[in-house]
Description:
This protein is of the alpha/beta class.
Amino acid sequence: MLLLIYNKAVANQESKQDLNIPLAERLRPTDLSEIVGQEHLLGKDRPLRKMIEKGELHSMLFWGPPGSGKTTLAQIIAHYTKAQFVQFSAVTSGVADIRRVTKEAEYNRQMINKSTVLFVDEIHRFNKAQQDAFLPFVESGKIILIGATTENPSFEVIGPLLSRCRVYILNQLSPDNIKAILKRAINLPQGLKEFKPEVSDKILDYIVNISQGDARVALTTLDVAVQATEPNKDGSRKVTESTIEHIASRKILLYDKGGEEHYNLISALHKSLRDSDPDASLYWLARMLEAGEDPLYIARRLVRFAVEDIGDANNLALVVANAAKEAVDFIGRPEGDLALAQAVIFLAMAPKSNSIYVAYGQAKKDALESQTEPVPLHLRNPVTSLMKQFNYGKGYKYAHDFPDAKVDQEHFPPSLKGRKYYKPPNKIKK
C-alpha cells in the first residue's frame, strides 16, 4: 500500500501532538541538526550533508542495520529539497505500485515542476523484475530513488540499478547515541515529558544494551516501561527495575563498567580460568556479557590469560583466544558470545603454566635495574670494514656449523653471565 506524504513538516508537527503514535515516529527528526550519529556522513563539511543543504538530489542507497536512521534521512532529504516524498515497502508493494508512482512523479514534474523522492524500504526484497522497473525512471531522472537495505547491496541489488545509485553506509548507533536519544525522549513534549518519567542511568544503560544499536527498539522499550508505570501523587512515574525486567523478559544485572563490580567480575573470570573450572568461567562470562560489558574487553583479557597463565603449556591457547577476539570483532553480538564461550572452555581446560610470565618478569627486572652494558663484540654484526677492524663479530660461532645447530657461547653481557630466566613447564603426561 502506498503512503504519500505531501507536506512532511506539517505531518510531523501534527504527529507530535498525538501520543497514540509510536514514540519513535513522534521523535523522528525533521532537521539535520536533530539527527544523532552518522557523523561520517552528516558531520560538518561532509559531502552528503553539503548536498542535502544545497537541495541537490541524486538516486542513492542507504545500507545499514535496523534503527540506524535510514527512513529518517530519506524524509529529511525530501524536506530539504522540497520534493514530493513517496514511501512504500518492498514487502507489500509490487510493479503496479511502481508504475503508478512513476506516472504521478512524471505529472508533478511536468505540471508543477516538483521532483519526487521515492523511498523504498527493504529494497533488497524486490526481485529482479521489480528492480528492473525502476531503471528507466531513475536513468531519466523522473524519480529520485532512495532505497534502504540491511543487506549488502552488492549482492541484493541488480547491477544496472546499483550503478545508477550512490551507496551510503549507515553505521550502527553507538551506546552513547542511543542513550542521548532516550534522554531526548524523556525531556521533549512530543516525547514522554508529560508523564514526568524518572529513569535511572542504570535502567537507561540496560535499555541501551538490549537495543543493540537499534533506536526504534530502545524507544519502544522506554515508551512501554513509562506508560506501564503507575504515577505517584505528584504525577511522576519512577520506572523500576522490576517493570523493565518484566517488559524485556530479562533480569537487570548489577554492573558498573567503570566501577568496582567491573573489576570484581573480570577477576572472578580470570581466577576461575586459572583454577581450570569451565563451569564457573562460563557463568562469570555470561554475567559480564548480559550486563552489557564490551565483548572486546573480555576478548582482550582472554588473550592476556592465554599467555600469562597457559603460555607454553599449550601453545594453541593464544591462537584460540586471538581467534575468539577476531570473531567477536567480525560478527559482533550476540553471535560472537559463543566464540568467547568456546575460548573460555578451551582456556579453562588447558594445562596451566606461568613460566613465560615469570621468565619475562625476571628479564624485564634485569633490563631495568642492571647496568646497561654494551653488546659483546662477538654478537655484533660487522657490516663495515671498520667494524671488522674493531673486532665486531670476532669469535662468533655460527650455529648451523655445529651438530643439531647447537653451540655453546655466551650471549649475556659480563655482569649477567649465565643468567637463567626460563624454566619450561613439566611435560604433560598423556
